[in-house]
Amino acid sequence: xxxxxxxIVIAVWIIxxxxxxxxxxxxNRDGIDPSAGQGVWIDIAPxxxxxLVDDVLAGLDQLSQSTPGDSRRTVVLAFRESASDxxxxxxxxxxxxxxxxxxxxRRLRIVxxxxxxxxxxxxxxxxxxxxxxxxxxxVLVGFDSKQESIDETVQAAYQAIAKRxxxxxxxxxxxxxxxxAELVRLTTSDGGRPLVTADxxxxxxxxxxxxxxxxxxxxxxxxxxSAVQLRDLRVAxxxxxxxxxxxxxxxxxxxxxxxxxxxxSQLRPLATDVGTSDRRGVLLEMIGSVTTAKSQRWQxxxxxxxxxxxxxxxxxxxxxGGSFGESMGLAGWFASPTPPLQxxxxxxxxxxxxxxxxxxxxxxxLYLSPDAKLGGPGADSIxxxxxxxxxxxxxxxxxxTNRSAGLLMGLLDxxxxxxxxxxxxxxxxxxxxxxxxxxxxxxxxxERDRWRQGEAIDLSAGLTAEQAVQxxxxxxxxxxxDQVAAQAGLPAVPAPAADRGIVRAVESIxxxxxxxxxxxxxxxxxLSTEMSAPGLGIPxxxxxxxxxxxxxxxxLNGTAEWLELLALVLGLVCIAIEFFVVPGLGIFGIxxxxxxxxxxxxxxxxxxxxxxxxxxxxxxxxxxxxLGGLASTMAGFALIRYFMxxxxxxxxxxxxxxxxxxxxxxxxxxxxxDLLGQTxxxxxxxxxxxxxxxxxxVVAVVSDxxxxxxxxxxxxxxxxxxxxxxxxxx
Length: 730
Hints:
- The chain is of the alpha/beta class.
- The protein contains 25 helices and 28 strands.
């Protein structure tokens, strides 16, 4: 009986276990890290600066800490060719390589992907990764004897990093870092294909096993090893055919291909995976012309954020420049963020032309919208000597942002002719003028012989987003601020920097030239209405509001100052004098009209005399705006005269035109011939018509063309029916 009971208990337990196993499995599935099967992509644009290495290590730290202890997350470090003239410092490359190899990242599977030419010390971190994947155009380039000498300590550090991972053969590392080393790929009698140095080659030759020798590197030359060669050596596991990585679509295809080869469901950029809680940002929209007042306001608003927990500035630049000095100051500030600020992220939704281009390129990273324009003529005419005077600051910005100083100077100086130069031995690319290429060399002729001159880079008309990314002046293409914020590691587009909302609203309205022009036209039309029916007040008040709004919009856009406002006010005062004080002379009317048009033109631009194509276009647009205001004045007079008297409600604002025929019939009943030669006193000012007391009668009179004040003595000089013409008696 006891045996039967034990058998039943065991059977029930087995059935229960079988029944519960799906639930347990489901529970385990629910507890799996949601990021399992997903890799992380970190884009790296050499050279490896301190700021860049700090960002990469911060991202790896965040990934390591957020990865469960019983799993590993795949991280792809995507190295791409740089257009910068600046080279990676050994200390920064070694710092990154050591951390990649450290136990701190045991939860991470770090893979490197190389697209393009990677040179000198930037190669070192590649020897520290677990797996190397290459694009079909990837090339690793070492040092040659013409570059700085590599001491034994540096060579030993390279070998130590490579041995710890075992990915790069010792002979390959020696040839990359030692300019005097020789490297040969052998084919032996047993079918082997070893890669040996010169010392190893001698012993192999003596053994008689060498069938073929393929020289990869001679002494004094830089080793240049291609993707195919690295795959044949089994240093790289995969070679992926890629197109240009100058747009988000192509980059996404590369990530999908890598994810498939790494057995991942997808690869996502670091910013969309982790770290969003540590990124606290603020948004600054730099819209319109760059002026001293606006620059001070921008700086004040941003400085106020440094006292809090903000560590990222998101700067949207949509400007035509306007002040080279102010733009250089802002660019130097953005390129060297000070703690607690970690980085300044830039975005160009429309255009950053003229001196505004240096503000945009000082942001790192910088994203452009697909239709954006970078560089080209702007609101300030930048002279070549101004760019030369700012050379040190431009080179500092280039080092901080890993961009080409030659290209930055070419963006600002449209007369500068920049060429693409390629080092004949290393393949290194540099952008410079022929003079800039050799100006720091001890032997200019020898330095010139080291470089092969390529095509000229035309920067005079500016660059498209695609061209800017190709040249390394931008870091990517994004369609919106939301996408830029995600790439920057921000959970959403941050709130704008402290500023009055009404200022931002007016600046937003000011970007729509049509609204400003409409306000100007309404202002002139209402002014003409007030002139046609003086004393009504309402049209004059509306006109004042429109003119004030037009000035405020242009002031916030940086194109209007108090001098332009003074010209506008004086012009309107002169027009009022012509209509209400001394009519008929024309001097005040013509002068006031010219002053008003001049004010409108100057309020629409930051310059007086155009000096480039862009300024000519702006001047043309400003003149048309002023002419539009004049046309609206004429239209206002026509509206008052012909239409408004017949419109409901509006007809109360206009005095009806008198019936001339009725007045003539009434006045024909009176005879004034007896007044000829008599004198009298004016009862009203004669402008030129009015009333005067002649004898015992008050009659309507007309002056002989001169304005006559009230109370003046006048003499009747002509009587034509009911028309009495007088002159002021002396």
